[in-house]
């Protein structure tokens, strides 16, 4: 399916880009996708194409400072700014369309926090290996360095602790793609890394109540997130119908699995709840 690169100008003047996959025929709903800390829209072409062919209008947002957005790369003024970006994109669509948030890895934190800061902007949520409970992270020494830099040089860059491509997948072709990907975000500013911690606290102390249907997809061989803790957290914040699917032999990035059975499962779920 062809896609177009479009842009959205935020209320603070930042112009960020996203991919639009037009639905085949009349759109059943809008699917708005959020990527992880390192990835971008270009990692998820096959699932977006399949969703569009199934009749969903798909917009995959590249987070400001990530993917195709080169301005202030790896940086953000605050996690609330990221939530406002999503809300400003969704709000004009809301009166006329049904909206599904599809959030992957670190993007899952943004999707859940959006419901707290800007409630009522979507009808259902699909969480693919969401990054609420990471199993990898910075060492204590690195964390202290980040927090010190945040006070003095907030724009200083640090390595994102996901440099090993094998954390994402075991598929050789996908491993080569990740290692060579020029748009992958491999470094983040001290400010962004601290904002990620603040976002965790926001979700912990002000947990959202997600009332619509939620699909949680997990990878049995995930080395990036803790599946047991993730299940428990999603159950606590979901008051609507929750469905959980786990793929025992899959790795963190389901898009890179050889069979990609999650795509058909997601489309089946969408047809049931939307």
CATH class annotation:
Alpha Beta
Task: Please count the beta strands (DSSP E, at least 2 residues each).
Answer: 10
H/I helix tally: 8
Distance N to C terminus: 22 Å
The average pLDDT score comes to: 97
Percent helix, as a range, is: 25-40%
| Helix vs. strand class | alpha/beta
Task: Describe this entry's structure for a reader.
The chain has 274 residues and is α/β, with parallel strands linked by helices. It has one domain: Rossmann fold. Helices cover 34% and strands 20% of the residues. It contains 8 helices and 10 strands. It has helices at 45-53, 79-90, 107-117, 140-152, 172-180, 190-205, 227-237, 261-273; strands at 4-9, 15-21, 29-34, 56-61, 99-104, 124-128, 157-159, 187-189, 214-219, 242-247. It has an 8-stranded mixed beta sheet, sandwiched between helices. Strands 7-8 form a two-stranded antiparallel sheet. Strand 5, helix 3 (107-117) and strand 6 (124-128) form a beta-alpha-beta unit. The longest helix is centred in the last third of the chain and has 16 residues, at 190-205. The two termini are 22 Å apart. The model has no long low-confidence stretch (mean pLDDT 97).
